[in-house]
Design brief:
97 residues, alpha+beta, Alpha-Beta Plaits, two-stranded antiparallel sheet, 24% helix, binds iron/sulfur cluster
Length: 97
């Protein structure tokens, strides 16, 4: 999925490197390989490829990652929600609980 990029500088991804415990979950789950581990700490290596899917934040055991499609450009959220709404005929937002 590396070829899918969105708007440069628009993602709202934030990483608290001090809180990171180096589990590697964000590296594993991110479909765009945004993160890399160095010295048991995650770092952002390709910020502008983030599509704000939320998988990293949902799988971080110490809440060191913040990303919320409703606060940013929400490119992926908009596309997915629009598709689901079109198929089901109902307005949905799969990123809201
Ligand atoms: S929100 Fe999705 S695309 Fe962005 S860094 Fe997290 S897992 Fe990767
Ligand atoms: S999921 Fe959280 S704790 Fe684990 S490596 Fe990534 S930022 Fe660090």
């Amino acid at each position: 999925m590396k070829e899918f990029r969105y708007i440069d500088g628009a993602a709202i991804l934030k990483l608290n490197e001090e809180a990171c415990v180096g589990c590697g979950n964000c590296v594993t789950v991110c479909p765009h390989r945004i993160f890399a581990l160095h010295d048991k700490k995650a770092g952002i290596v390709d910020y502008d490829a983030c599509m704000e899917c939320g998988a990293c934040a949902n799988n971080c055991p110490v809440a060191a990652i913040y990303v919320n499609p409703d606060d940013g450009c929400g490119c992926a959220a908009y596309i997915i929600n629009s598709w689901i709404s079109k198929v089901t005929g109902k307005r949905v937002n799969m990123f809201n609980n």
